[in-house]
Amino acid sequence: MTRRVLLLFPWVAFGQSPSVVSVQKIWDQGPHNAFTDLLRFRDEWFCAFRESEAHVGGNGGLRVLVSADGDHWKSAALVTEPGVDLRDPKLSITPDGRLMIVAGGSIYVGPAGSLSYQGRQSRVAFSRDGRRWTSPRKILAPGDWLWRVTWHQHRAYGVSYLDTSTAPRSGALYTSRDGLHYTRVADLEVPGVSEVTIRFLPDHTMVALARREIDPRHGWIGTSPPPYTQWTWTEIPHRLGGPNFLVLPDGSLLAAGRSHAPPGPTTVVARMTTKSYEPVLTLPSGGDTSYPGLVFRDGLLWMSYYSSHEGKASIYLAKIRLP
To answer: What is the pTM of this model?
Structure first.
């Protein structure tokens, strides 16, 4: 595909807000390209996302792109499973130095245009080089969606949420030493919980940024000290989609995700604390959009995301200067 870079005027306020350096479309070859993550691994950039026919349904595959410089990208792999819609790939590096993808695996049956959802179970795949991947393996139980894991002190931690027709969504924190076998740590008292990203502060406090799907659909921020069984939660006045955040070298938090503020959905960067979330920068985006991957490197925030503001859901990479 033709590489296109948009250079934008920095959005600043008295030098205290992030500013966009560039935004580049890096992939649009699938009918629908969405739900990204981004990682730096062995001196290369890797971006993973779902490639399928539409936002929901079909048999999605997990496309993995690779780049040596962050400007020129090519396909490294397409991870698939026959009859399964693989969704929302999230990248991490295991303690033994492998790349790991955790993803959802949904089953749909029926003719195109009238697919019927049959169930789901999380999957995991591993790679030594980002190009050759193991076959996806089921983890946890049917119905579970382990949306993202973060490694801390040689253990993976992540929140799996259950979606039932008879009760609001519920979630639980799990941990694993190998990425395959998980132990339940605690139930999360977050009504309607959905996608959750967790990170760790320097003092080992766990911080969670959670999407919720019951009215008013406001996100929640939670904190818990080791062993992560007791939680304190704060509601934020923002509806989230694809929430992600980083702990920066100075200990501050920076988040990104979908905003539902008027006039419509966009992808934003937000200042975050353990009790607050404040959007400060809107990326070129709209329509079907969000699900950012975040890496802080060499003074810049590197951010993958998807958006349909240019006609169809495509993958973008933004470089953002932080104050």
So the answer is: 0.93
